[in-house]
Amino acid sequence: MTRFTPSACGGLRIALANVEVMLRWSGAMWLERERTLVVADLHFEKGSSYAARFGQMLPPYDTRETLDRLDRELDLLKPERLIFLGDSFHDGAGESRLAADDHRRLEGLARGRELIWAVGNHDADGPKVLPGEVIDEASIAGLTLRHEPEPGVQLGEVAGHLHPAAKVASGRATTRRRCFVTDGQRLVLPAFGAFTGGLNILDEAFSNLFAGPLLAGALGQSRVHAVGMKSLRPD
Amino acid sequence: MFAADALPPKFQEWFAARGWSPREHQLAMLDKARAGRGALLIAPTGGGKTLAGFLPSLIELAERPPRNTPAGIHTLYISPLKALAVDVERNLLTPIREMGLPIVAESRTGDTGESRKARQRIKPPDILLTTPEQLALFCAWEGAREYFSDLRCVIIDEAHAIWPGKRGDLLALGLARLQQFAPEMRRVGLSATVNDPDLVRRWLGAGQDVDLVLGSGGAQPVVEVLVSGGRVPWAGHTAEHAMAEVYEIIKSAQTALIFVNTRFQAEFAFQRLWELNEADLPIALHHGSLSAEQRRKVEAAMARGELRAVVCTSTLDMGIDWGDVDLVIQLAAPKGASRMVQRIGRANHRLDEPSRALFVPASRFEMLECRAAADAILENHLDGEPARVGTLDTLAQHIMGCACSEPFKLTDLYDEIRSAGPYSDLSWEDFETVVDFVSTGGYALRTYDKFRRIVQTQDGLWTARNAQARQQHRMNVGVIVTPGMINIRIGGGKRPMGGRKIGEAEEGYFEQLTPGDTFVFAGQVWRYNSLVGADAFVSPAPNDDPKMPSWGGSKFPLSTYLASRVRQMMHDEREWAALPPDVQEWLAWQKLRSAIPDEGEMLLETFQRGKRFHLVCYPFDGRLAHTTLAMLLTRRLDRLGVGPLGFVCNDYALNVWSLRPMDGLDLDELFAQDMLGDDLEVWLDESFMMKRAFKHCALIAGLIERRHPGAEKSGRQVTFSTDLIYDVLRKHQPDHLMLRCARHDAATGLLDIARLGDMLTRVQGRIRHVPLERVSPFAVPIMLEIGRERAPGDAAGEMILAEAEEDLIAEAMS
Question: Within 13 Å and on the Cβ side, how many CA atoms surround B382?
């Protein structure tokens, strides 16, 4: 079983391939020694992409909501390095649709810290104008950070892409939440963006990634809840 | 007053040949038509109402001189049900054929084939029979103005069922539009008996005068309440105790319709009746989740007179005439008199014979309610509806439709919309807000100015942006928002393939089941295997004792009038004589152990049971109002340091329990009306009711789409994303139009806040507090409901997470 310890801040400390990482209640991963904050699947400008593609006018506030959530983490943790783990923009043209204010805020993220954009399938080229380094994957503290999990056993991999969600049961009642999912060897982060949905971690897409029993870190209203296999349900 | 010779000879002969003479209200309708006046006909079922509506048009069309140019539609008939439009078409063809009239009458519904629809567009029939949704589509046609320029008459059938909802709003807007196309058009409404005909007249007429025509009343229905010889249970919703009696009564009737209030009750009653059915009577089941094919089969068998009984929900409240039904049974209390009158009207569609109805109460409180309903029906005291103010999400859909049809001038459209009854008081400011919403989404952040759905032409008229915007609108017309539906298919194994579909269910149904559970559907027991996308796979499990999803109560609120009747009946001991001995005894025990409140009072009991302290009160204002009240009371009790732990509500009472006693509280303070202020606002915005209301409004207004060309978005995806959309919008633009609409809907429909407000006023200073040593007879039913339901919402979700975590920690420690 994956070792975990709830922390006072509402997070969950786990040992991932013998590296200690903090799973934050916000859905971010925090590497304290490296002062590095990792967030996956921000999907900036997902709202406005519907207007561009289908003429559907969803509220254009998802980017600022995601930035607000990010700001709260930056204020609390003061990271020296911020890593976006791919699918940071919902589509390649998303950057050009940013409201001026949101654009300025994104620029500001690179001020006084290292900003790294790992590319994903939605944003294969990375940003064109915004500052920061564009990479495919990164190695930090013995962990490998990339957008899409590679098949098979990958010791120490941290990825996003799948938008994991857990349907948690107690008795006959269930609730569905975004979650972290790990077997102690690799970790998949929940999607951080305001308009991102979730895929049940009992779905087949997860089945060939994990060797051991799953530990889900379900995002509650003020903390991460550790949830074991027995409490998980398919949709 | 009217002579039969008011009819042309051909019509007189036709009536005579059938051994009929025209009824007075049929001639009155003709008179109104000849005077060019609109009319609302109110008559009981079976009074020749439909013919009364069509007669003027048939005569006018029969006498119309031949024309050189092809004529457009003369009469448009609109019914709330597709099946009814098709049925009326059939009935209308009989006189047309028998009199040899040169009139073409055709139906057009969502089920009509494309080729027929295309032909109707090029060569319109004289009489077109259709639904409100099709009218909304017509309004979005390019060329609609020309198509309807010959229209002389529009007939709205079952007007009482359409007007008090969003379908009524949309239809009223459609009528206002048609009136612009055809200024001479007359409006005709056909309605069952209603409490306040003037409200329907105002909705129908708006700018135009609509006269009231009353049909002669039919024979008084004979209504009985089943007493079940002393076995009426304390609590429950299924009336299981009475099934054997019900079965015997079915045997004695020719054909019985058995109405229940929920699909679960329908499945349950159907199963129990078949277990008792040693005579193998043909008993069928009809509810909204069964596949359309199955429902058509039942309806056809019914029409052929092959069935002895049908267990049904409100799906059979109106529609096709079945002369053979001689008994209507209502299982569990009817909740309102108007719906019940409608249901009773389904028996014996002949005016001279009384309809027979039997109420089967499922509990002791329901016994009181059934008696109250029977009295109300005999006194013809129907439930009142509040006056209607048109909804803005519906208006948004209509405005988009207008822009798809032809360019409009803002001020002209404003005037046109205000000629629709529900929108006569629409302010210019609200109108502009809705137009901006339709165009750009109405956001303070002007992101979408370059993606506008409607744009201004050079001469300042508004029109749809392009063909794609038009097509998208047409695919999403209508205000009936069905919850995400899951197909129920036969199949098992790890990768089940598309097996036979046996029906569909709302997605909430399967949220209560875990793979491996068994449940009853379509009268059989099934095992739930898996959910794949929008398909639930099941396999037959005939020998299993099924688990029933535990939603028990009715979705209909107890009507205000019935509630006050029940309160009065309880208080007035002379009325007890009409009740069976077991219920009388129950009331007497209540009087002895606790109290029977005076008519204007609200009884409130406090007592301890185990470690918990209970507060039970009896407002009789319906589950919705009680739930809202309980939520708000809980917040207050929390602030008072009482430590409330939970609550449960039914139609009659609510029960809140806590860690510490509640005897010493200032009750008038606790129930003070100001709880409807800030507390309500805060709680409402967080509630799942708001999220649900928001989703409905967003779908209707076109903020999110049910369908877009090429890809059908399933209900499930929408459910998920609308909650996220709601949260983000609420935070960043709390005054957005869609949130206004959602708050309005949640306050009226889902939470019954107006009723709660009335209740708080009523009981102020009149709360009768009785501290008790133990549970009172009245409190037993509500105590039994504890644990059956877990309130949905964030707090409950957190509890589940915490419990799951404890499980894991326990596992790690062991």
Answer: 14
